[in-house]
């Protein structure tokens, strides 16, 4: 099979011929159709991801494909011959290959109404945004803030907030992104690069009583959010797009009763029962089979992987970039 390989963190990617892996007990072999590039993939390629893979590595966190072979086990056998959305298992190779072995529990059958392209993005972003809605409800918050509003995840979160009657303060990085987010129905959109941004966020958060802040950026952006947030607020970092650390004044946290609570999708779903996760998956499938579609900006064959990575880094707000094993 053809597979995309990285020898060590930060290296350019290459396409190589590799043996097709064999599924073990409870595993399935998926013939991959499409795989997206996610911010977490970029983090892994740079060597800044929390989980450290064994190198050389086949990257790729999620994708879609057809299960063509299974190991022992009822769930694994039930997936054979089915189209699925899937995520990679630890140290079994990622989705950026013609074939991938993964746990049968990391696959979700795709309905006929969901295309291979949309199905390849069924898990990471949709599950994350639904988790944000659940967290808001758990904290009894009717207003939330997100500082990656122009991303695919941000636009999906805006849709879900409207549907769940939750007010969302959207933060974008450029003035050109303000209009595109407002077109999708957003009421509040702030530009973090404008000179008066910190004051605008402080006033709006106080006015709307916003106390739940989802942070995908890190660095100076996180520091501004913490300063702008009302007393009793919670900052939830869920990515680090800036690749920069941020510092916190302990007195501000102590005296204003502010909290920092990380979000990692794998930890969040592992803390829920299989029935709760299946219920959430059904919600995601209904979303993608219905009125919501994740925007796709481009599709790249494997042999243009480095160009695809560079394009995605520079055009994240334009939509998702998909990888395709063959030739389009």
**SSE pattern, N- to C-terminal:** EEEHEHEEEHHEHEHEHEHEHEHHEHE
Helix content: 25-40%
Secondary structure tally, helices? 12
Question: How many strands, which pairing sense, and closed or not: the largest β-sheet?
Answer: 7 strands, mixed
- Contiguous low-pLDDT stretches (5 residues minimum) are none
Alpha carbon gyration radius? 20 Å
Envelope shape: globular
User: If you average the pLDDT, what whole number results?
Assistant: 93
Bin the strand percentage: 15-25%
- Counting helices, strands and paired strands, the structural category is alpha/beta
Cα(first) to Cα(last) distance is 18 Å
Let me know the number of strands. 15
Nutshell version of this structure?
This protein is α/β, with parallel strands linked by helices and 328 residues long. The chain has helices at residues 39-46, 74-79, 116-119, 124-138, 152-163, 175-183, 197-208, 219-228, 250-255, 265-270, 274-289, 305-314; strands at residues 2-5, 14-17, 27-36, 62-70, 83-87, 99-103, 107-109, 143-146, 167-172, 188-191, 212-215, 234-237, 259-260, 296-301, 320-324.
């Amino acid at each position: 099979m053809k597979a995309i390989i990285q020898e060590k963190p930060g290296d350019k990617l290459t396409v190589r011929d590799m043996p097709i892996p064999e599924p073990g007990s409870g595993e399935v072999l998926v013939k991959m159709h499409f795989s997206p590039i996610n911010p977490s993939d970029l983090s892994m390629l740079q060597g800044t991801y929390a989980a450290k893979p064994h190198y050389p590595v086949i990257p790729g966190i999620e994708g879609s494909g057809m299960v063509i072979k299974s190991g022992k086990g009822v769930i694994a056998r039930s997936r054979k011959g089915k189209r699925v959305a899937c995520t990679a298992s630890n140290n079994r190779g990622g989705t950026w290959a013609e074939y991938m072995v993964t746990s049968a529990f990391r696959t979700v059958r795709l309905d006929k109404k969901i295309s291979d392209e949309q199905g390849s993005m069924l898990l990471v972003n949709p599950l994350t945004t639904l988790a944000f809605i659940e967290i808001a409800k758990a904290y009894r918050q009717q207003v939330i803030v997100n500082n990656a509003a122009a991303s695919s995840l941000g636009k999906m979160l805006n849709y879900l907030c409207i549907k769940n009657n939750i007010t969302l303060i959207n933060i974008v990085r450029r003035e050109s992104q303000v209009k595109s987010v407002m077109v999708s129905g957003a009421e509040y959109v702030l530009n973090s690069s404008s000179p008066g941004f910190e004051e605008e966020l402080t006033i709006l958060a106080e006015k709307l009583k916003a106390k739940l802040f989802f942070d995908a950026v890190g660095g100076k952006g996180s520091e501004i959010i913490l300063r702008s947030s009302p007393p009793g607020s919670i900052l939830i970092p869920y990515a680090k797009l800036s690749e920069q650390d941020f510092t916190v004044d302990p007195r501000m946290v102590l005296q204003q009763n502010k909290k920092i609570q990380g979000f990692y999708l794998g930890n969040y779903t592992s803390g829920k029962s299989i029935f709760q996760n299946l219920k959430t998956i059904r919600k995601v499938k209904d979303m993608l089979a219905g009125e919501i579609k994740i925007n796709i900006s481009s599709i790249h064959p494997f042999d243009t992987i480095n160009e695809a990575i560079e394009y995605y880094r520079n055009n994240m707000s334009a939509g998702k970039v998909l990888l395709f094993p063959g030739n389009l």
